[in-house]
Amino acid sequence: MAYMGGVSFPAHLEPWIRLGAFAGVLLLLAGLELIVPRRPQAVARRNRWPGNLALVAVDTLLVRLLFPLAAVGAALLAEQRGWGLLNLASLPAGIEVALAVIALDLLIYAQHVLFHRVPWLWRVHRVHHADLEFDVTTGLRFHPVEIILSMGIKLAAVILLGVPALAVLIFEVLLNATAMWSHSNIRLPGPADRLIRRLIVTPDMHRTHHSVVPRETHSNFGFNLALWDRWFGTYRAQPEAGHLGMTIGIPEHRSIGDLRILPMLVQPFRRQGEKK
Question: What residue intervals traverse the membrane (predicted)?
């Protein structure tokens, strides 16, 4: 048990907390997608889910091998050494945790914008956008190179900001859950969607980001808090073709074969038009 600012933190339970939250949210949202779907899906789960979930397994294995301490370990180390802005401040533990979670959410928004703006980063990130449908597993579909780069950025931010380990755990559980939620194929009543998206990104809000239309692809970057898109001018309320008429994905890589794990892994390294 580690202690930070008088708050105990069960570091040894961190992987199990994250795994339990991940499995619970995935099963809940996958079930709701069957009960209240937003869009009919032309590409069946059996054609998409094996590749998407295999990518999750590869990502998880690589992170555990390359970053054995992970972000929570970096936070505990920073606290022990007194590194980072928050470790230099004398704030109540609750305020530190809240500020850190908000700061990390802003960081993820900025990182997401960067991965769209920089061409070589987009080549990696477009694996996420190349899914032919939009559901809970799309929120887990990221190329290993993007996951590694994201972890490096997160570790640097945790150390520079002095993020408490408890805040890291809360943020990572929230990010994972809201990524699945914001990508889920769940139908919300219009008034509920409009109310929720004032604070939290909804599936309809983020689905616009997965439109094949470039000006819609490069909007609505948030995963959790919805305010960043409004504050920084990247918010788009609805897709022009409507949620039932819009096309999901990118112009390239639109075959069923592109949904398999190996084509996804090599996709960023293939030249435009190159045969698989």
Answer: 16-36, 56-77, 89-110, 155-175
189: phi then psi, degrees, rounded to nearest 5: -60, 145
- CB-based contacts of 120, cutoff 8 Å, min separation 6: none
CB 136, CB 178: distance < 8 Å? no
Q: Are strands 7-9 and 2-4 parallel, antiparallel or unpaired?
A: antiparallel
pLDDT at 14: 74
- Give how far the C-alpha of residue 213 lies from the chain's centroid of Cα atoms, to the nearest Å: 21
Contact predicate 124/247, CB 8 Å: no
Q: Alpha-carbon distance 209 to 222, whole Å?
A: 9
Judge contact between 119 and 246, C-beta under 8 A: no
Supply the pLDDT for residue 5. 46
Residues of the chain with pLDDT under 50: 1-6, 273-276
Which residues, in sequence order, are bridge partners of residue 20?
none
Contact yes or no for 192/172 (Cβ under 8 A):
no
Q: Which tokens go with 102?
A: 């908000």
